[in-house]
Amino acid sequence: MDEESDLMTNNMKGIGKTGMSIFFRRVQWLWPECYPYVDKRTEKALGGLGLPRDPEEMSKLVEECWESVEKGVAEEKDIEVRKRRAFLVALDRAAGAELEGNINQVLEM
Prior knowledge:
This protein has 7 helices and no strands. It has 109 residues and is mainly α.
């Protein structure tokens, strides 16, 4: 994905590395070619929460916990799309906790 990121960053005015990281994180549930992807900031957040920082390991965790996670994922016929969506939601929640400085509060729950 580095090549794609460089291509898009160089050809889209105003989009930098951070924007591309967010883009690839958010689009991976729709584009399986980008899955699994964890950007640096989200990787840090996952580690702070005691979750796997490696994209493959985090994907396996979603798979292992699918029965309990499945109920909270938006309706979608394709189960693989639903699993990628659950992966994205987990990443977004972790990144949000990191950005808001709430990692410790989440761990206390």
